[in-house]
Amino acid sequence: MKKSIYDKIKEEDKKKIEEDSSSVTALFSQRLLAFIVDFLLLSILINLITMFVPVNSTATKLYKEQNEVIENYLDGNISMEEYVNQLVDLGYDISKQTVIVSLVSIVISLLYYVVYPCYNNGQTLGKKLFKIKIKKLNNKELSMNDLLIRSMINNSILVNIINIILVLFLNKDLYLSSSSLILGIQYLVLIISVFMIAFSKNSQGLHDKIVNTEVVVVDTVKEDVLCESGN
Fold first, then answer.
1. Residue among 60, 138, 50, 144 nearest 101 (CA)
2. With 156 labelled, which of 13, 104, 172, 194 sits at a CA distance of 20 to 30 A?
3. What pLDDT is attached to residue 36?
4. C-alpha angle 158/34/122, rounded to 5°?
């Protein structure tokens, strides 16, 4: 039986309502578990890839000294204070000698948190596992710039970039004090974001507020094939 014009209009209205209906916000537990999964997967990936990045003999020697310090502490040969001081000093020297490794790690993080979800429906592997995705508010297109800014804030990429600059241009004392301050700010931002996600009305973290995004359940929103390259 041929459908009347009224039936066609009714179907179109129903379809439009379904497409424009509010998406379901992801649970805090879903986002937390996805974050942990992404962190673990990325850590494994970075360790596997950076194994093939050559390091100089000085860095190799420093890694050996670091292991010796840990062994001395476990054997009770040095105090906690000596252990911490020696590890801090070695950490600075190692960072200075392994800038290339740090740069490779940042590139991998950008590929994982920015490029991959941009072309994978706003999802990292962790978000895909828990069936949630990043979505722009008001049905606007998610852009690569949005994902970049989110990751700089939420995934410590900006902090890692700043640390590379600091270790290249500052002496040990200035580097350690500046790095500690930046790390403290990063932890504060993450804590604020956690509370905002857990208790705010739209469950938006600080990074979501800045770029006007939200994390939603995949089944409640239509799939995006690609995200835009700009805002």
1. 50
2. 172
3. 96
4. 70
Q: How far apart are CA 158 and CA 119, in angstroms?
A: 22
The contacts of residue 182 (CB under 8 Å, 6+ apart) are 159, 162, 163, 166
Is residue 5 over pLDDT 80? no
Crossing angle between the packed helical segments 99-110 and 157-169, to the nearest 10 degrees: 160
Question: How far is Cα 159 from Cα 164, in angstroms, rounded to an integer?
Answer: 9
* pLDDT reading at 16 higher than 50: no
Task: Tell me the residue type at 157.
Answer: I
**Which residues, listed in sequence order, are joined to residue 135 by a DSSP beta bridge?**
214
B/e letters for 181-220, b = 16+ CB within 10 Å, e = fewer, are ebeeebeebbeebbebbeeeeebbbbbbeebebbbbbbee
Give yes or no for residue 175 having a pLDDT over 80: yes
Q: State how far the Cα of 148 lies from the Cα of 129, in Å rounded to an integer.
A: 21
